[in-house]
From TrEMBL:
InterPro entries: UDP_glucos_trans. This is UDP-glycosyltransferase 76E5. Transmembrane segments: none annotated. Belongs to the UDP-glycosyltransferase family. Pfam families: UDPGT. One of its GO terms (molecular function) is quercetin 7-O-glucosyltransferase activity. Keywords: Glycosyltransferase, Transferase.
Length: 453
């Protein structure tokens, strides 16, 4: 008699332990856990997140020995850090998975790795464990990585001096133009394109998960589905389903009490995510513009985000004390969901973008690097739910942008469109919606293609 195949029920997650990456990976873990999979999270020995791991009961956390502390991305720059991390971690991750296979009696159905943790593929291939790549950014950003990965550096540099080429639309993906390809803030072009090549080389990965949904990025998703030739699962926004967040910094919840005392839709919330830095001059211009707008504001200023000054300049503290409230780290989803919040001034990281749309909050965009600029382009020109602050930050433009967003008809129209998108996103994760179905298809895929011996 034929031996019945045993189902493997364990998924190993390999997140990049930066806030914007680990958050959606843990949310994906929760979604799969609810579907009956056991979850193991593999983290480098120098990148443990024990303080928050208690929010994920039942998850197993394992340590990858010999890797690189994530703090090095600040000193090395993201590209050099990723090269070093991937080189250093490949062998130790293989050992980690080999040990797990022994301990778990071969129960690993699949390794799901952050696209930037591409070292994971070597272990998956050698130990014959199926693997799936997870993109925590937008589908459009993934398209751009694929396009950049095929470019010749010298030719691209020459092409980009030609204004006609700069304004050429990429692969019919209107409004994406060559000048929007997200290369800025990534250091020298060649190493960055090398990373794009690594990220787009799917190796033995058998599927791709993206934290997006088809109503936001249908063109880019269709492009990817054709290009990658493996299943693509757009099952986001993942945070709608999540019951807990893994916050690497302590959230200051006093800001919710402060918000409770404000009028509906009157407050502008300002946060530039977990990585971006600001110059003192910019900080002062922001503070002046915000005060001149006469609107109340809640401002996240992360410790260390203003190089060279540990304390907030006194002028700023004094200026903001009347109308503003400053925290080091906010419970962002609760803030965006609060009725007092009327707008979000954001650096346009992908998670912040999704979180703002899910709460129907219009945005002021102040992107710092190429990927964020890409998100800002979509916020302003595709979904039309925000405006971009261009050039140097200057108090007059800050005041105008805040007033426009909170008080003018133009801002009201953006809010209306944002609320329309909110409904679409909620429908996409609800029963029968595209993201709901994509999650079911992924589960089916993991159960049939990956989990039988
Ligand atoms: N975040 C938060 N509190 C804050 C600021 C940010 O919880 O005060 C969270 C935010 O909700 C988002 C993440 O940090 O989930 C930032 O990710 P994003 O992709 O927006 O930007 P990154 O930090 O990667 O630049």
């Amino acid at each position: 008699m034929e031996k019945r195949a045993e189902k493997r029920r364990r998924i190993v997650l390999v997140p990049l332990p930066l806030q914007g990456h680990i958050t959606p990976m843990m949310q994906l873990g929760q979604a799969l856990n609810l579907k009956g999979f056991s979850i193991t999270v593999a983290l480098g020995e120098l990148n443990q997140v024990s303080s928050s791991s208690q929010h994920f009961p039942g998850f197993q956390f394992v340590t990858i020995l010999e890797t690189v502390p994530v703090s090095q991305h600040e000193t090395l720059g993201l590209v050099e850090f990723l090269v070093k991390l991937n080189k250093t971690t490949e062998a130790s991750f293989k050992n980690c998975i080999a040990q797990l296979l022994l301990q778990q009696g071969n129960d690993i159905a699949c390794i799901i790795y952050d696209e930037l943790m591409y070292f994971s593929e070597a272990a998956a291939k050698e130990l014959k464990v199926p693997s799936v790549m997870f993109c925590t950014g937008s589908a459009t950003n993934q398209v751009c990585s694929c396009i950049l990965s095929k470019l010749n550096v010298e030719k691209f540099l020459i092409d980009m001096e030609d204004p006609e080429m700069q304004d050429k639309v990429v692969e019919n993906l209107h409004p994406l133009k060559y000048k929007n390809l997200p290369t800025s803030g990534m250091g020298p072009l060649k190493p960055f394109l090398d990373i794009c090549r690594e990220v787009c080389n799917k190796r033995t990965a058998s599927a791709v998960i993206i934290n997006t949904t088809s109503c936001l990025e249908s063109l880019s998703l269709s492009w990817l589905q054709q290009e990658l030739e493996i299943p693509v699962y757009p099952l986001g926004p993942l945070h709608i389903r999540a019951s807990a967040n893994l916050s690497l910094l302590e959230e200051d919840r006093t800001c919710i009490e402060w918000l409770n005392k404000k009028k509906p839709r009157s407050v502008i919330y300002i946060s530039f995510g977990s990585i971006a830095h600001m110059e003192t001059k910019e900080l002062l211009e922001m503070a002046c513009g915000l005060c001149d707008s006469n609107q109340p504001f809640l401002w996240v200023i992360r410790p260390g985000s203003i190089p060279g000054s540990e304390l907030l300049p006194e002028e700023v503290s004094k200026m903001v004390s009347e109308r503003g409230y400053i925290v080091k780290w906010a419970p962002q989803n609760d803030v965006l969901a609060h009725p007092a919040v009327g707008g979000f001034w954001s650096h346009c990281g992908w998670n912040s973008t999704l979180e703002s749309i899910v709460e129907g909050v219009p945005m002021i965009c102040r992107p710092f690097n190429g990927e964020q600029k890409l998100n800002a382009l979509y916020i302003q020109s595709v979904w039309r739910i925000g405006i971009q602050l261009e050039g140097e930050v200057e108090r007059g433009s800050v005041e105008r942008a805040v007033k426009m967003l909170i008080m003018d008809d133009e801002g009201a129209c953006m809010r209306e469109r944002a609320l329309g998108l909110k409904e679409k996103l909620k429908a996409s994760v609800g029963i029968g919606g595209s993201s709901y179905n994509a999650l079911d298809e992924l589960v089916n895929y993991l159960e049939t293609e990956c989990s039988t011996s």
